[in-house]
Amino acid sequence: MKEIIHNLKYRDKQEIGTLLGNLYAYELKEVIEQNNITEIIPVPLHPKRLKKRGYNQVTTFCVSLSENLNIPLNESLLVRNLYTETQTHKDKVARQYQTNLFEARFSEQDCGKHFLLVDDVITTGATLEKCANALLKIPNSKVSIVTIAFTQS
Questions:
Q1: Torsions phi, psi of 39, nearest 5?
Q2: What are the tens digits of pLDDT across the range 75-111?
Q3: How far apart are CA 75 and CA 90, in angstroms?
């Protein structure tokens, strides 16, 4: 799985995201329907990182989930405010000290929704926690999370 994620994330093999999104959508369909998920939200990259990499590695995965599950993809609701160096080699303590990394830029239309927050890998959970906390500032919102993979520590 590590090699698959590296190909998706660092080697521009975005078709992997599409394939995995199709597979995950099939497995998640019933759970997603039961929980009334209203929008899919990818963990955003900072614009500087997006420009450097050229793509967000979870976008094709999210697009496939969106198409297969008939749930809108919203790439503008959650934004990354601060540019940080890669989180890959940081431990949980170092990741926790970074505050205000994410912000939900929402309107009244976003209130009361149940968001599916999507990332490639869960390591310590710090990034997803910060994203979820930003989304939960939207009145009456709920957040569920799906990742392509997780690390064992």
A1: -150, 150
A2: 999 999 987 765 555 555 555 556 679 999 999 999 9
A3: 26
Q: What is the spatial distance between Cα 58 and Cα 146, in angstroms, rounded to a whole number? A: 11
Q: Is 22 exposed, middle or buried (0-12, 13-18, 19+ CB in 10 A)?
A: middle
- Burial of residue 13 (CB within 10 Å: 0-12, 13-18, 19+) is middle
Which residues sit opposite 54 in a β-bridge?
none
Arithmetic mean of pLDDT, 9-25 = 94
**8 A C-beta contact, residue 135 and residue 101:** no
Residue of 130, 73, 128, 81 whose CA lies nearest to 105: 81
Q: How confident is the model at residue 139 (pLDDT cuts 50, 70, 90)?
A: very high
